[in-house]
């Protein structure tokens, strides 16, 4: 973020809530924001310094509401100010309810449907596949970069179209077996013939064995809402204006 001739870095938590704004050159803290579980601001060292707030929404200091695309969220009540425009297709019987009453693990960046955050999905994978909470990875690898830390690409069907492969790999050893949890937070994107960025898959995890085959009992993909993935914002007021969703969760 550029402000007053300086470049500032916005530091967010696992939900996308802005917690710190730091001078990129000096490390000086320009703003610190604390929230309770439902997004009420309990401390703000510099109100109005930047526009983003709880879960990455656009915060209005006058109304104290946070805009997430289709709706405004009221952290004081923990509810939306309007009913879900897709009604019960959003997955909640309460049309004003926020993220199934679990704001610590779920986010809803477009105001339409709650989705698990990255951390919550990672925890769910561990539970489903029998990895105890106290077990940490044997190894964590950052994958798919060349010697100059440039992204490596897989060539897609169309000549010149490339899908960036950006991933971390968490390697666990449980019950004598190797399990690899591969993280693709940005998903896979490429450019079409008009130069538009096309999202082929949203942020997700894959779980494989040591030979790269799907781990027994694992799903093909574990999709989650990622603050790094532009698909999560294509319908809201922070739209980049060039993201076209392609495909989707299985």
Automatic annotation (TrEMBL):
<dbReference type="InterPro" id="IPR050708">
    <property type="entry name" value="T6SS_VgrG/RHS"/>
</dbReference>
<keyword id="KW-0677">Repeat</keyword>
<dbReference type="InterPro" id="IPR022385">
    <property type="entry name" value="Rhs_assc_core"/>
</dbReference>
<dbReference type="InterPro" id="IPR028048">
    <property type="entry name" value="Tox-HNH-EHHH"/>
</dbReference>
<feature type="domain" description="Teneurin-like YD-shell">
    <location>
        <begin position="3"/>
        <end position="89"/>
    </location>
</feature>
<dbReference type="Pfam" id="PF25023">
    <property type="entry name" value="TEN_YD-shell"/>
</dbReference>
<dbReference type="InterPro" id="IPR056823">
    <property type="entry name" value="TEN-like_YD-shell"/>
</dbReference>
<protein>
    <submittedName>
        <fullName>Uncharacterized protein</fullName>
    </submittedName>
</protein>
<dbReference type="Pfam" id="PF15657">
    <property type="entry name" value="Tox-HNH-EHHH"/>
</dbReference>
<feature type="domain" description="HNH/Endo VII superfamily nuclease toxins">
    <location>
        <begin position="163"/>
        <end position="224"/>
    </location>
</feature>
